[in-house]
């Protein structure tokens, strides 16, 4: 212990700088997206896109192609969203569709009725909400439209899968607490 106290400040400072440098270099490791969840999300999203495709223009496309053509934003859509804090029509379409698709996957996996609400104003501020009864499972704030618009399928699937896992984990925790009063039905 005395030895440490007698170390020169320069040696200690060098060790602290080296430690800080290692922390900056290392990026947090993201776990990979669960393929089953990703496929379920793609299926739900395609079902929603098919419901909006009144004339069947995209009916012959494969699910991934359908998402690329109807859902994902182009570079022009993204630059339109970044210009003057305005939100492009593509973002206004993506937000509610993605939250509806996530709600459908959670509902399918849990057997509990899940609703979604998503709103975004012209400047990109808003929220996306997944809930069941009085219980809010997922609440995401949108600031300047972030993380929307999604221009790649990988980013959209990662965001959706993380929200689905978060919602399922919270739903499981809440089921245990309310087992005596009936599932998700507390009288108030």
From TrEMBL:
Q: Name one Pfam family in it.
A: DUF269
Which Gene3D superfamilies does the record cross-reference, listed alphabetically? Protein of unknown function DUF269
Q: What's the protein called, per UniProt?
A: Probable nitrogen fixation protein
Q: Source species, please?
A: Paenibacillus typhae
